[in-house]
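User: Quick sanity check before I run a bigger batch. Here is a single chain. Can you write out its predicted 3D structure?
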Amino acid sequence: MYKKIVVPVEMGQLDKGEKILAKAKALLDAGGEIVLVNIVETTPSYITVDLPVDFIDLSVKDAEEKIAALDARMATNARRIVRIGSAAREIMEIAATEKADLIIIASHRPDFTNYLIGATADRVVRHAKCSVLVDR
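Assistant: Done. Predicted structure follows.
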């Protein structure tokens, strides 16, 4: 059905990552490609004072290891991308650059601050140039 699917995974929700990666495998055309993505969020300067100097570098390394393990466990042979920045913005940038025809993104249980779907998922749904499947 789809030639290129971008699958953003949050490190704190790897179980949801497995679920959406399985959906991506099921929806992928023969010869298609899955792009497994993690975005390490930048931290405001007033918070970085209390963090180790190499916090971002360690977070990137941890993300690379975890998505590699997820990819191996799910046997997807996905291309993996880890970036630093705003999650929604980076996900949409990757999808545009990769010419993805689908983004599959997980949403967390809504709370007071984002009642319908997660803030990142909400932004991606509203602004992505390709189809977006939100998994609850």
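The chain has a mean pLDDT of 89.

User: Great, the batch can go ahead then.
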